[in-house]
Each structure stands twice: as C-alpha cells, then as structure tokens.
Amino acid sequence: MDFLIRFPFPKDSEVTVLTVLHRDLFGEHEDEEFSDEQRKALLEAQEAVREEGERLAAEAALDWLQKEVSWRTPNVSVELREAPNVAHEILDATAEFNSDLVMLGDKGKSDIERFLLGSVTRRVATHSPCSV
To answer: Is there a domain that residue 70 lies in?
Structure first.
C-alpha cells in the first residue's frame, strides 16, 4: 500500500483499488464427536464469521487507502469483490476497467507456499492484457 500511496499518478488518472477476497470453505473437522449435520453447521458458522471479519478488514483498508491516494489523484475508487479464483477475478476486472496498468500486492508467502499453491501475481502477469 505504501508504494501505491507514493506512486506519481498523472493528475487525470483514474485509479481503481480492487481487493479480491478468496472464498473457499474451510477443511473438514476430524473431530469424531460431531455428527455430519453438526460438522456442517459448525463449518458454515466458522466460514460466515471468517468471511465477515475479512470483509470488514478489507473495507476499512480500502477506505483508508482511498483517502490516502485521493489527495494526489482525485479519481480514485475502491471495490471489494469475492471470488473462488482471485487471479481470474483480477483479470476480469482488468478487462472490465480497460486497465493500462495493474499493481499487485504481496501477501508474504514463502517460496515453498508460492510454488505449491501457485501465484496470483504470476497468473495475472502472464495473462494480463496490460502492464503488471
């Protein structure tokens, strides 16, 4: 975010700050004391709490970022989306906004995590129709 705040956008730039929350269910609990119905209800409750927490944190971060960037570039909008495939959603937004440039943040994954899980940044950079 610091880089985005300091980036010297031209005055007539339109900046959209997009946050995409990954939506995927938690793994199954292995605890045998729950029935299948109880396990399902527990997973649904945990997911709802996690999603709401992520959404609130993302909205707060986007509001703060919009205020910090808008004093330099008045045409700043923020958008929060949820998707099972973050890279695909970013690429869709890139086409939708007719973007000239995409800047991506880093969640701080280790090299092993990035190798095993794949990289949103790598996928977006590989398939984006504009500079990344």
So the answer is: yes
